[in-house]
Amino acid sequence: MREPVDLRRQRILAAVQSRGSARVRDLAEELQVSVVTVRRDVEELTREGRLRRGHGVVRSTVPVQEAHAETAAAPDDDRVAVVVPVRHSYLNEALHGARTVLEGAGLRIALHLAPQAAGTERPLVERALADGAHGLLIAPRWRGRAEEEADHEWLAATGVPTVLMERRPWRGSALHALDSVCSDHWYGAHLAVEHLVGLGHRRMVFATRHDSPTARSLRAAFAEIAGAHPLVEQWAWALVAPEAGSDGPYTADETAELPALMRKVGATAVVLHGDVDALMIVQRLAEESVRVPQECSVVAYDDVVAGLGSPPLTAVAPPKAEVGRTAAELLLRRLAEAPGARPGRRIELLPRLMVRGSTDRVTSDRLSV
């Protein structure tokens, strides 16, 4: 799902005001949209008198010092900070869901985008709290377990109501009692496996990233479910690409080219996290004259753009926007009650399976990959 236009323009405005000026090309890269899209947004913001256009550059109509002063002078009791990774289309939907709840309650959002590097969330949170935010919604990137562990102590001690979005704290960690809302990815993996088994598939390959909590949860879930399933004869897990793992070392099979691993397993189906990697494997299989779904069924995990494929991809769809809405509602309750009035809450929401054209029954003349 594309990011809402008004949210994208809000992000452009915030970026330019914080810097004083920015190149259109840089903004397009940060937001992962085309230069043409940014130009259209800048033209509209210019018409509204909120930005000034230059040759390839856009400037704020408010001096940086004045913009910061206005922010600092704003009342503290109606602002919450939201911290999410930059360039993360999946979490854009969660962010939009949270926004509708928070703005509907009359709260202002201070949006902070964490760059793609370890430890970038902490200074953003500290800045937001210094600016007067009195609540926090956060989805740390956490590429590896070491990064996650490094954030435990300070994130548990923010001093304001804090809710984790699409993140599940380790058992017994400093964050164990922190409020969190996330998708039940075990159930999502279960939906994918049962769908394929129901179509007669007995040999499967699961390919995920390994550089996020969701990816690591999915790997564990697929291994548990497929390993215990009486109808799954053989299965294997692999990285979607060598650069998608940060917690190795990995075996040769775990870093193998997917078509080669599928041939080795005799797989008639593959599940990939996320959509883009699933769309790419369909193209790769087509190059090797393997038809989807006639000769190989493909299931995507995320369902952000899976339905746009050719064929449209069957996909597990975590309730992304609902995660954001539920997290925001939980934060609102925390803000309205005395600290410690209720125990911490760990809320899990169930994904759904969207069946489309990339999966089919195994037939007697089906070819293995």
Concise summary:
The chain is of the alpha/beta class.
Top keywords for this entry?
12 helices; alpha/beta
Question: How is this structure best described in words?
Answer:
- This protein has 369 residues and is α/β, with parallel strands linked by helices.
- The protein has 12 helices and 15 strands.
- The strands form 3 sheets. The chain has a 6-stranded parallel sheet, sandwiched between helices. Strands 10-9-11-12-13-15 form a 6-stranded mixed sheet, sandwiched between helices.
- Strand 2 (51-53) and strand 3 (57-60) form a beta hairpin.
- Helix 2 crosses helix 3.
- Mean pLDDT is 88; it is low at 64-76.
Topology:
Layout: H1 5-19, E1 21-23, H2 24-31, H3 35-47, E2 51-53, E3 57-60, H4 64-73, E4 79-85, H5 89-104, E5 108-114, H6 121-130, E6 136-138, H7 145-155, E7 162-165, E8 179-183, H8 185-198, E9 203-208, H9 213-228, E10 234-239, H10 258-265, E11 269-273, H11 275-287, E12 297-301, E13 314-317, H12 320-336, E14 346-349, E15 352-354
Parallel strand pairs: 4-5, 4-6, 6-7, 7-8, 8-14, 9-10, 9-11, 11-12, 12-13
Antiparallel strand pairs: 1-3, 2-3, 13-15
